[in-house]
Structures are given as C-alpha cells and as structure tokens.
Amino acid sequence: MGSHPCCRSAPMRARPAALSGVRPTSCTSSTPRAHPSATHTTEGAMAQPFKRILVVDAETTWSSKDYTLSKMTTEEYIRDPRFHCWGFCFKWYGDPGVARWVGATHLQNYIDRIDWSTTAILAQNTAFDGAILAWRFGVTPAFQLDTMSMGRALRGVEMGNSLAKLAEDYGLPPKGRAVHSTDGITKEMGLTYEIEKELAEYCRHDVLLCEQIFRRLVMRDTTSQGIDNEPAPEPSTWLYPAKELRLIDMTLRMFTKPQIELDANMLTDAILEEKEKREGLLERLDLTDSILASTPQFAATLEGLGYEVPTKKSPSSGEPIPALAKNDAMFQAMLNGDDENLASLCEARLMVKSTSERTRAQRFLDISRRGLLPVPLSYYGALSGRWTAMRGAAINMQNMKRGSFLRKSLLAPWGYEFGVGDLSQIEPRVLAHMADYHELLDIFRSGKDAYASFGEIMFNMPGLNKDDHPVHRQSAKSGMLGAGYQLGWASFAAQLLVGFLGAPPVRYGKKFAKELGIDASYIERFMSYEPNMVAMAAIPRVCSTAELLIHCVVAKKIIDLYRAAAHPVVGLWKVYEQLIERSLADGEEVQVKCLTFRKEEIVLPNGMSLLYPNLRQVKDDRGRPSWVYGPKATKLYAGKITNNTTQALARIVMTDGMLRVDKRYDVVGTVHDELLCLIPENEADEGIKWVIEQMTVEPKYLPGIPLAAEGGWHKRYGLAKK
Questions:
Q1: 491-497: long-range contacts at Cβ-Cβ below 8 A with a sequence spacing of 24 or more?
Q2: Does the global pTM surpass 0.85?
C-alpha cells in the first residue's frame, strides 16, 4: 500500500487560517448590496473586521396550545401578529460579569444605540435570535456566529447540539428551567415583576452557556470541562476555519436577511390547476381520496378491476404486503406501463398521496403574504458538510424539481436578476483526480460529452453518442455517477427499476444484453453463484423471473464493465480499505493527496474533518468481519469513504466559489452544486460570466483538476438556466 502514488505518511498539519475580519453588511433586509467594484478584494481577504461580538438571547411570548415553535416554523412564529419579545440578554464577548437584561420597554432604544456595522452577533440559534433582531428591530449586524452550526460541524449531526447537550458534554452548569411558566401570557397581559426577574435570570444563564460553548468550539477544544474564567480567545487566535465561519454567516443571512420575492399569482394558479386536475381524474375514475390513499382499499379496487396486486416482503413481519408505494418497482412499472387505465389509477393515487408539491406551494403562498422568502438551510447538515433543510422549516429548498412552477415562482427583487451557476459533474471530476484516473480527466478537459466519451471506453464502442446510442450513454452516465462508490449490481438493478438518480425507470432486456456480448455461458456463471440468486430474489418487480434475470445480468455486466474501465478508482478503493484499519482504527497518520487520515477522522483541506467516532469491528449477518461506527453502528467500507471524501471535497470546491461570488454579488441560496445570487440588471450578461469564472478557479488542494460550470440569469429562478 505504501507505494501507491497518492498515499504517504503525513506531516503535522498547520493550523487553519484564523479569522481576521469580515465584510460588514449595512443594507436593508430587502435590498441587495450594490456592485462593489471599487472595493473588490482578492481570494482569502476579508474587507473589514468586526470590532466586537455581542452574545444575544431573546425571550418571547408563546402558547403551548397554538403558538409555539413545536407547531410552527421560525418564520411563521416571528412574523405572527401575536409575537412579542419580552426582552433580550446582551453580553459583550470577553467582558467580565453577567449578561444585561433589557426588557421590552427599553429594548428598541438600547438596540438603536449599538453600531451594528462593526458588531457581530453570537447566539446558540442565531436563525431565531438574529431573525428577531432583523425583522422586528431592524438590525443588520456585521457578522453572525452560531454555536449550534459550529457544533454540528465539529461534533457531528448525530451527537446532538442543543444548548443543553453541549453544556452537558462540556461539563458546564445545566441549562436552567424557569419555575414560573410564561405559557399563554400575552403582551396585553404583561409579566409580573417576579416572572420577569426569573425570566431574565434564565436568559442570562443561556447567554453564559452560549459564550462558554463558543470559546471551546472556536478553539476546537473537545476536552475542557467547567467554566473557563481565562480571557476570551481573540479572533486572531481562533482555530475554527475562517472560511467556514463566513459560510455560517452567509447561511444565516439567507434566512435573516431575505431578498427573494414570491409570485403569489403563479402559486395560486398552480394550486388551483393541480386541484382541478386531481378532482377531474377522481371524477373520471369514480374514486375518492380516501380509497386512493388507503393501501388496502386501493389494492381491493385493483383486484376488483381484474388487476393482479404486486406484493413485497414486509420488513417487520416478513409476510407479503401490497407493493403500492411510490418507490416500489412494481408500482413504477404499472405507472409507466402500456395499460392506460392502470396508469391513470396509479397516477391518481400518487396525486392524492404525494402532497409535498401541493403543501409546499401553499406554504410558499402563505409566506408571500407575510413578506419575502427566508431561505431555511442548515449549515453542515450532512457528514460531508453539505447543506440540508433547516429543521422544522416545513420547506426543503434542496428538493425543488428543475423546471417546476415552484422554482419559477421565485423572483429576484426590483433591479436585479437571479444569477445561477451550476458545477458540472463535480463529483466524478473530484473522484477522477483523487484516483489519478488520467483518461477520464482528459475527457473532462476536452469539453466533449463526458458520458458518451466515457461510454466509448466502457463499452469499447468508438463513436458512441447520445442520439444513436441512448441506452449505452445513459448506462455509462449511471456508472460514472453511481458506480464509483462501490455500488453493487443488485442495488444498481433495483434502483434502475424505480429510476436511478432521478432518471426514468429502466428494465434491461435481451436486445441490450446481446449488444453487450452477454451469452448463455455468462448467464450460467451468474446463476451458478448462489448469492446472486438470493440477491435477485429480494428485488421487487412486476416482470417475470426470466425478465428479471436478464435485467440483473445486464446490471452486473455494466458494473463489471465500469470497474474494468475505471481501474484507477478500484485501486483507490483498495487504498481506502486498508486505511480503515491502519489509520482510522489504529491511528497511524497517512496523507492521501489533500486528505489526512487519522484516528477516527479524515482531515479535509479546509481544516474540517469527516468523523467516524467509536469505530469498531463486528460480524455481519454472514459472519464476516465488518467495520461500523457511531451510536447507530453505521457500516464503513471503502465505497462509503470514497463517497464521503468525494462529496466533501466537491462541497469545498462549491463553497470556495460561493465565497468568491459573495464578495461581489449576494449569494441568496444554494441547491446541491448550484448557487443562486443577485446580479444588477444592467450587468447580467457580464456578471454571470464572472460568476462562472469564480466557480471554476482551480483549487490549490486539487491541482490540475478540470472544472466546468454552466449557468444563466433571469428574473425567475426556474428560468435562469437556459
């Protein structure tokens, strides 16, 4: 293993760059900042430091009956007419003493005396406290810091990063509990002296905990216990990567400083159109919502019409149950089959069961009546560092379908266009770089159709193209996007039947098998290996066993062809497999290009880490040794490390581009490998070209990687990419 060209013993890592300052934000919550051409800064620089940090915590009205964050989103709660802030606790970071409670009567006056252009705010849940300051008191701080976000990144999502859990893990005094509840007390009723006094003490304690936790997180200290009375670490000494703090601030600005408008008319029309279509289909089929939504009743309806109801094995009882869920291969086959009546029945069931688009459209419409759209994202919501939907937000911006009316309903503010940039095939490019797969890197450099060009190699078919060989090209695309993570043939075959990575469902047949050179001897070898037949039998389907056999044999052939063509990737798997025990378990520090493997972690080039806590070896269901980690005994193998590291590096490439773009244009959203920014109308053409340039700057940690991006601009988000 030591001779592998991308693997060597690692030197000690240098400290990540410390935070030296940030760009102040002085514009209002509805106006993007102007093009700062005169003050444009270079990569890595920060325009102006904040001078001080204010630790904040708000106390507000609530009612367990119908006005609480357990039943409402943060946006709904703060914008509700019943909202009232009893007061805030404020404490200057590093100052001795306790936080100052400022009640409602004097709150606005106190806030107005602070120079927010040089003041950062820090809270445990800054999306909440920062939104209150912004939406209710007109505050635009220079920067926003958040201990919950930092905890997710440094400790992992599964560890729990509430204020109470963080305080417990750092040996701090427990989070307090008020004796007198403010449940149901309204602004008009007011607080008694005793209740407000107790509320203030409760709030002061939360601020104390927040500052103490921040001290540890910003210095990446995981061992200190109890109250730290030493002077607070200065920003110049912080060990939390400066770029990551900027990403936290960017994420919070997307929410607390909303700028995206919603087209209420389009949303209303779409909701009515969907309702009319659904009701018309139900009337034509003479069925009700309740029949279609109920699996037993829908199954009985199908049987009554003479259709055979597909079944699958229940994961809990092992008994056969109807396979009528959206992701069941048999249901997808009926939905996309030639029987129009059966397809209509399945479509009607989907329209009744799949309420996400309808519900989300209604939520967007409701938000449009309250104001601009706060984009609810969680920084470091996944192991790889990628964003996820903010918990409890009720809308997931990451799952809006391309071309959907939801995307089209998002409007740029007056005087601006949406600029949308999307990194092209970023994960396959990163994987090819890490594996030294030069043949594939040359394909990406050529600018040709990467999937067709890879298909030429994979299938040994010179001249393969999208028009003449659509199945071959799609199969090569599936291999490039999925098989690089050690995907097995059985999983590949099952996913194809319901639609692999969002593509339409596919079942391979004899014609394609013949084109791949599959003969009787290949099929016999497949059938003679008992685990193959066991895996095939577990795949849900509506086709015959003979048809499924051909499909599975072709799926295996494609995986075999991918691995033969992408042999450098297979070689990288072998390196990662050995490093599980050598480095992640036993603790030897090893460098693999820009990655540092250590005990239970892989250090990334941005200073963050992929975490595999409590890594241990167990026996799998076939008695073979297997590595697992974490409280849920998550399986760890070479393919998973390949997936985690590739996605993490792709995320860093993406976020580096976002930070560069944000120096000139406000970045107001991101969806996977796509960023969304606001460009002044009079510079949209030139601006989007600049955005693409910023997204494709070659990273120092991936030297020589050929990056590419596509993009466009439009007033409507859904029409920006031509």
A1: 492/555, 492/558, 492/559, 493/536, 493/539, 493/551, 493/552, 493/555, 493/556, 494/329, 494/539, 494/540, 496/551, 496/555, 497/329, 497/332, 497/333, 497/539, 497/540, 497/541, 497/551
A2: yes
95-148 pLDDT tens trace: 998 999 999 999 999 999 999 999 999 999 999 999 999 999 999 999 999 999
| CA atoms of 95 and 558, how far apart (whole Å) | 64
CA separation (Å) from 649 to 383, 434, 456, 572, 700?
12, 10, 28, 15, 12
Distance between CA atoms of residues 136 and 128, nearest Å:
12
Other beta carbons within 10 Å of 114:
15
C-alpha distance from residue 265 to each of 406, 414, 464 (Å): 12, 17, 46
Show the DSSP H helices in 156-288 as ranges. 163-169, 193-218, 242-256, 264-285
DSSP state for residue 424 in the 8-state scheme: S
d(CA 621, CA 666): 51
Distance of CA 554 to the CA centre of its chain: 33
Is 594's pLDDT higher than 60? yes
Residues in the chain, overall count = 722
- Cβ-in-10-Å burial (0-12, 13-18, 19+) of 380 comes to buried
> Under DSSP, is residue 179 helix (H, G, I), strand (E, B) or coil?
coil
Percent of the chain whose pLDDT exceeds 70: 91
Q: Which of 432, 458, 460 is nearest to 445 (CA)?
A: 432
| DSSP 3-state of 69 | coil
Residue with tokens 């072998």: 574
Q: How far is CA 12 from the centre of its chain?
A: 31
How far is the C-alpha of 639 from the C-alpha of 25, rounded, in Å? Answer: 43
Between CA 498 and CA 336 the distance in angstroms is 10
Mean pLDDT of 303-330: 80
The residues, any chain, with a CB within 8 Å of residue 639's CB and separated by 6 or more, are: 485, 486, 487, 573
d(CA 568, CA 233): 45
The two most distant CA atoms of the chain are separated, in Å, by 87
Specify the amino acid at residue 398: Q
φ/ψ of residue 32, rounded to 5: -65, 155
Mean pLDDT for all residues in the chain: 88
**Sequence letter at residue 553:** V
pLDDT digits (tens, 9 = 90+) for 81-108: 999 999 999 999 999 989 999 999 999 9
Give percent helix, percent strand, percent coil of the chain, each to the nearest 5.
Answer: 45, 15, 40
